[in-house]
Amino acid sequence: MSAMKLALLCLITILLSSLAEGQKGASGKTGNDLLPACTAALDEVDGRSISADQMLAGRACGYYVAGFLDGWGFGQVAAQGTKETAICPPEGFTSVQAIRIFTKWMREHPEKLNEGAGPLLFFALRDAFGCKSS
Q1: Does residue 13 lie within any of the structural domains?
Q2: Neighbouring-strand partners of residue 116
Q3: CA 128, 57, 75, 103: dihedral to nearest 10 degrees?
Q4: Comparing C-alpha atoms, which of 27, 46, 21 is closest to residue 99?
Q5: Residues 47, 59, 118, 68: what is their CA dihedral angle, to the nearest 10 degrees?
Q6: Which of 11, 29, 74, 127 is at 20 to 30 A from 84, Cα to Cα?
Q7: Does residue 134 fall inside a structural domain?
Q8: In degrees rounded to 5, what are phi and psi of residue 133?
Q9: Long-range CB contacts (< 8 A, 24+ apart) of 13-19?
């Protein structure tokens, strides 16, 4: 097994173990933390007036989502040559689109907001862009 595939396997194992134990994940952030922050991010992107505190919170959401997407992209490179992937976004997919999807998903699943933000973002993107079996 190559080092990249081993790293991906370790990352998936950590993610799944945090899901199973209901932990917040490495960042310690939950959906309760990110829903207002991501809402502020979208308010700013959409041109609505927000406070300086909301702007900072919105930027934190943007950085969180961008970091997740970067990590996911690394995982795709590490898994290159295998057929296993759970998220298949369209060409040109952006972090703002991910924030919109994540925010909508959290509003539709309020019972999960106490769970780790990383797994919730994964579920939101998987629900929106789950890969089709060939």
Answers
A1: yes
A2: 30
A3: -10
A4: 46
A5: 100
A6: 29
A7: no
A8: -70, 140
A9: 15/118, 15/119, 15/122, 18/116, 18/118, 18/119, 19/115, 19/116, 19/119
- CA–CA separation, 62 vs 94, rounded Å? 11
How confident is the model over 96-123, as pLDDT tens digits? 999 999 999 999 999 999 999 999 999 9
Question: What is the domain extent for residue 93?
Answer: 3-129
Which position has the token pair 């943007």?
Answer: 62
Segment 62-93, tens digit of pLDDT: 999 999 999 888 887 777 766 667 888 999 99
Does 47 fall in a domain?
Answer: yes
> Cα-flanking dihedrals φ and ψ of residue 124, to 5°?
-60, -45
Average pLDDT over residues 32-46: 97
Number of domains in the chain: 1
Q: Is the residue at 62 inside a domain? A: yes
